[in-house]
Amino acid sequence: MDELHYVGKDRPRPDAADKVSGRAHYIHDLVRPGMLWGKIKFSEHASARIVHVDTSRAARLPGVRAVITGYDTPEVRIGFLRDNFALKRDRVRQFRDEVAAVAATDPDTAAEAIELIRVEYEPLPGVFSPEDALAPGAPLVHERDADGRPLTSNLLSLTVSHRSGDLAAGERASRYIVEGEFSTPLIQQACMGTAGCIAEMDARGNLTMWAKTQIPFLAQRDFIRTLEAMGLPGRNARVIVPTLGGAFGTGLDTHAYEYIAVLLAHRTGRPVKILYDRREEFANLSPRQSARTRIVQGCDAEGRITFRRLQVVQDNGAYTSWGATYPTVMLMPATSLYKVQNVEFDAKIVYTNNTYAQAMRGYGNPEVTWPIECTLDQLAEQAGIDPLELRLRNKNEPGERTPMGLQVTTCGLGECLEFAKTKLGWASKRGKQRGLRRGVGVASLVHVGGSGRIYRSDGGGIILKLDDFGNVNVSYGGVEMGQGLHAALTASIAEALGVVPEKVAINPTDTATCPWDVGTHASRGAFIACNAAIRACAKARRKIFSLSAEVFAAEVTRNLKGILKKNPGYTPPAYDVGAGCRPENFELAAGVLWLKDAPDEPWLKLELGRVLRALHFRGVAGQMVVEEAFYEPPSELPDWSKGVGNMSASYAYGVQGFEVEVDEDTGDVRILHAVAAHDVGRVLNQQTLRGQVQGGLAQGIGYALYEEVKTKDGRVLNPTFTDYKIPTVHEMAFPVDMCFVETNDPAGPFGAKGVGEPGLVPTAPALASAIWDAVGVRINDLPITPEKIVRALREKKAKE
Amino acid sequence: MSFEYLRPRTLSEAWDLASARPGARFIAGGTDVMVRLREGKVRAPALISLRAIRELAQIEIGPPLLLGSGVSVSELQANPHLARQLPVLVEATRTLGSVQIRNAATIGGNLCNASPCADLAPPLLVHEARVHLASADGVRELRLEDFFVGPRTSVLRPGEVLHAIVVDTPSTGRAIFLKKGRVQMDIALGSVAVLLETQGRTCVRARVAAGSLAPMPVRLRDVEKVLEGAELDDRTIATARQAIERDVRPISDVRASADYRRHLAGALLERAVRTLMNGGRR
Ligand SMILES: Cc1cc2nc3c(=O)[nH]c(=O)nc-3n(C[C@H](O)[C@H](O)[C@H](O)COP(=O)(O)OP(=O)(O)OC[C@H]3O[C@@H](n4cnc5c(N)ncnc54)[C@H](O)[C@@H]3O)c2cc1C
């Protein structure tokens, strides 16, 4: 790529000023005329039969406009397997099941009305772990599937398996074998902005939803189906996405609260807003899936990985979200993190009466990278090979086709490992600081860098509308949720079109104005959006250049006249403007159109707005410059029965490393230094990228050391930030060395790969390795709390 | 959630308002009572703010040192006299909540809450602070130690106001407060305050108190007994650790197990004693 002007530069994000000055409008700020407030009555049991719902007192409360239950509203089926309902009838399967809802003129009245609803239950036995749920004779969470077929077990039909190579041969070739069981907990996405929506219906039954979603177009489809179920076929659902205060996967599904808002809006004929408070968010919004993995991994005497077997069990909770497809992503590290030929992978997901889980950043990847990297560390220990050296020996390389069929086009894993090695002072520190209770550790990651195909289209469309003033109005169907999509898109459009970034304005995401996009997940936002943008920009440039041949000469002649008027003595150079106005002779840069063979003549340059006005105001010949493009990445929808397929157009690699100090008495882990090296293909926007990596690191540290949604018999025990701890600025007060390896991937926009998720993938195993180095204990179950460290140290001492 | 909000300017006005409204609650900074109201853990038809009562907001350097119950945690933190006379209390303010919480929270609210994890209690306990409780019937003075009776319960009678906290001329000993949370800004999983007077390596006076390690903030006399009169060597410290592990009565909850808290008590105690012996903190 020759000289870039905006891509890769350290520019502030376009949304930053509004966000820090309170001008951005989140769902919390939005009000519609005549709007009512909805509130949900949640179940008081994890598993029970609903005997009776008495809403009469709530309905009589002044200010209440509607009280609805599953018994007096159309049945609205929701969820990835359509095993869930907006409002429950007859049976509750988890604590947060929606039993009734109200709409009232203000939030306090709605809350009071909810308290007046009386529900009589007949408690039923529940199952609260996958083991219990799979035990013979365990009570069934669902007796039937969505099609009415009887179910005989709590095991979901969504099993994912993979076999490649020859596992037995791999075992035979192994000098060292490590096995173990590892777990990752339920954690909360902990978005700064809690969940909420506004549903509004017009008199014809069309719905407008202001939704906190990452999938506006799949949501549109879901809501249209709902309107059909409500007896409103042929109506439209328009989805508008307000500024989002974080999503992290919570917006990958549509949620019962959204459908309830629709039902209430339909019942009352008024816009209805439902907004979760923090306690509701913790107790009633699906957290990240928990996973338990049995792993066996081996290596030969030189430390080359010989085989790997993983058996994963996930707790689905009572209903099924897209998050149930984590194994499709788990396969990637299982088969393709480091070179490994012989792989066996099996994943099961099981219904329980726990809160049902959903997607979160990384989507299955950290769950499996955790056991892989932890056992690799142990293999290194057994083989007497430095763990970083062992990783280097097994590193992935460009041109490799992995057992899953992933085509590795570019790969900067080696550079990332080398960077971590240098910055951590690895050679002088690893294994050498036990006396100080200090240690260093690293871990790597692979993730989809060119979107991840899990749906029949993995594409996204974009519209560029250029106006009379040279503004570029952009409509893209993906979602800015805080990750910096708009910063990347602005830089890419300015670069690819030849305008200044200040002229690029990105419209709110709205299904009515934006082309289709599958959703903002799989680190695909910037990759797809910028690829689509580059194509639309090329079309716009072609159009501007071909049409300008007709208007340019007339406009510059006026320029010349103006110059001559001011300076009659001026002699213009001999240049045949008519002949110069050939489409291929035009160049557009920084919003100025000029001729390649006369680059130095000021009067031969036109500001883009002026050109566009000239094209517009030409009587019947007038034209607008509005261009669209749809980008579908060159990837395959994997065959999930075999667990094979090149699901992404490129793959992102990275390494994180830490130096920690462990207090052996209290078990406290203090991070002294962090290194984050990522193969990003190409930096699109420096600030945004650093923010993504820093944020991923914080989230990864939370996952590693502090966070866990604790439940007892299906009830969330810590539904507040008082008892759900995420890292704050105090926990992040250590230097971070970042390195962005630019491998310039052929599929990437300007060579870029997705980087949204990688930041939290290797954090926990890197920290675990550093903790081992410092005090010699390994914890297999996240989070690594001081309490677990103290216990492990005590056990270690007892053994010695 | 609706309630009457009242803002008397004098104590007698406050008592009148309180006696006319059964179930009314006092509110100072509100950082505790508002949270509990919202969560439905307490109900109150009326909140009587103590913020406008001037006399509650005073600090008298004394001796004795007198801290009005309405002094905010931020004010304690910033007061230069306190930094000299009661540094261990100032130390405890630093990890109490966040800047925003400290600006609103008061010392009186912290104690009247009677939470086992009140951070300001252990430092005051090792300084053998006393409290002045005022009602329409007059003022009574108690040892702070006798003020707490259980989790979230104190000896305060309905309508009675914690007027001030009194500390005699600060001791010549040196004191330290150590707290451990899950992250830095957190309620204590355990906290320990230790005050020691030493002659050479011999401890002549020891005061030890703890937070979050019993149903209320407590003095730990068995530990004090081990330390007082003893040479502060490894053996004494080990014995003191055993004593504190016996003496505390922690619970298991969503934050930590009783077992870990017990261990933590020992770890914090050892660190506190060693830091003081090595000349740290005052
Ligand atoms: C985010 C957050 C973090 C926190 N972190 C900590 C922490 O780290 N450590 C810690 O110890 N606490 C912490 N707290 C709890 C709380 O902030 C403190 O206990 C604070 O000192 C309470 O003071 P207040 O003035 O806000 O009390 P209020 O909420 O106003 O009152 C608390 C109770 O005391 C009563 N009361 C108040 N003043 C008087 C008086 N003069 N006479 C009689 N009764 C009175 C009230 O009726 C009420 O029952 C935290 C709270 C929050 C919300």
Task: Outline the structure in words.
The complex is a heterodimer of chains A (800) and B (282). With 800 residues, chain A is α+β, with helices and mostly antiparallel strands. Chain A folds into three domains: 31-124 and 195-275, Aldehyde Oxidoreductase, domain 3 (Alpha-Beta Complex), CATH 3.90.1170.50; 291-454 and 637-799, Aldehyde Oxidoreductase, domain 4; 459-631, Aldehyde Oxidoreductase, domain 4 (2-Layer Sandwich). Chain A contains 20 helices and 31 strands. In chain A, a hairpin with a 2-residue loop joins strand 29 and strand 30 (715-716). The radius of gyration of chain A is 29 Å and the shape is globular. By secondary structure, chain B is α+β, with helices and mostly antiparallel strands. Chain B folds into three domains: 4-49, 2-Layer Sandwich (Uridine Diphospho-n-acetylenolpyruvylglucosamine Reductase, domain 2); 54-167, 2-Layer Sandwich (Uridine Diphospho-n-acetylenolpyruvylglucosamine Reductase, domain 3), CATH 3.30.465.10; 174-277, 2-Layer Sandwich (Enolase-like, domain 1), CATH 3.30.390. Chain B has helices spanning 11-20, 33-38, 73-78, 80-85, 87-94, 99-104, 107-112, 121-126, 144-147, 221-227, 234-247, 258-277, and strands at 4-6, 25-27, 46-49, 59-60, 65-68, 130-135, 138-143, 148-150, 153-154, 161-167, 174-180, 190-199, 202-211, 218-219. In chain B, strand 13 and strand 14 (218-219) form a beta hairpin. The mean pLDDT of chain B is 95. Classes of the chains: A alpha+beta (800), B alpha+beta (282). Chains A and B meet through helix 20 of A and helix 12 of B. Bound molecules: flavin-adenine dinucleotide. The site of flavin-adenine dinucleotide has 31 residues of chain B, from strand 2, helix 2, helix 6, helix 7 and strand 10.
